[in-house]
Write a structure and sequence with these properties.
By secondary structure, the protein is an alpha+beta fold. The chain has one domain: YaeB-like fold (2-Layer Sandwich). The protein is built from two helices and four strands. It has a four-stranded antiparallel beta sheet, covered by helices on one side. A hairpin with a 4-residue loop joins strand 3 and strand 4. The radius of gyration is 13 Å and the shape is globular.
Length: 77
């Protein structure tokens, strides 16, 4: 978000707020995202061009966010 904030602090705040809302939603609905490209991971699109990559840890009933990536970044197939 620092990179976004250098160009537009308002956009960075909006992005941060939306990201926070999406991640809080995952706590309540961990299957909200679709199965990811890598077995055991899930993906949730947020803020138009960003993807939250996460996994569900069943033993601890936890959602672990691994990465937030721009949709155009290289991802494994």
């Amino acid at each position: 978000m620092q990179y976004i904030g250098e160009d537009s602090p308002a956009t960075a705040k909006e992005f941060g707020d939306e990201l926070k809302a999406k991640t809080q939603g995952l706590a309540m609905f961990p299957l909200l995202g679709k199965p990811g490209r890598i077995h055991g991971l899930r993906e949730l699109v947020t803020h138009a061009n960003y993807i939250i990559i996460y996994r569900i840890l069943k033993m601890t009933d936890t959602v672990e966010i691994l990465r937030v990536k721009h949709a155009k970044q290289h991802r494994p197939t």
